[in-house]
Amino acid sequence: QVQLVESGGGLVQPGGSLRLSCAASGMIFSMYSMGWYRQAPGKEREFVAAITIGGSTNYVDSVKGRFTISRDTTKNTVYLQMNSLKPEDTAVYYCKGRRVSTQSDLWGQGTQVTVSS
Questions:
Q1: What's the chain's Rg over C-alpha atoms?
Q2: Residue whose C-alpha is closest to residue 52's, from 69, 34, 68, 38
Q3: What is the rounded distance in angstroms from the CA atom of residue 71 to the CA atom of residue 80?
Q4: Residue among 62, 1, 75 at smallest CA distance from 34
Q5: What angle is formed at CA 53 by the lines to CA 51 and CA 58, rounded to 5 degrees?
Q6: pLDDT given for residue 72 in this prediction
Q7: What pLDDT, on the 0 to 100 scale, is given for residue 31?
């Protein structure tokens, strides 16, 4: 079964850190570019960060310098290290994989991140 499973969300105080993980199974991980998206209550899902097969990264401006996306091909896992978290980072975070050859997308179920004192 092809799937992406996120983990690592939780409640953290402003200024704190979290690391999200997205484990891929049933797929050839090296054939997928990977990304993280988030959706806050009452808002549309937005792009956060992405990493290509070759390891190139890009970020939405609001997280540059605070978040880092990485991938471990030996573990079929993509990570999102989030530092200096702000209340406005509160959202459900989703992992997305895009098969480069077909441009087909696969989504995880999401993990909640809440930044609050």
A1: 14
A2: 34
A3: 9
A4: 75
A5: 20
A6: 96
A7: 94
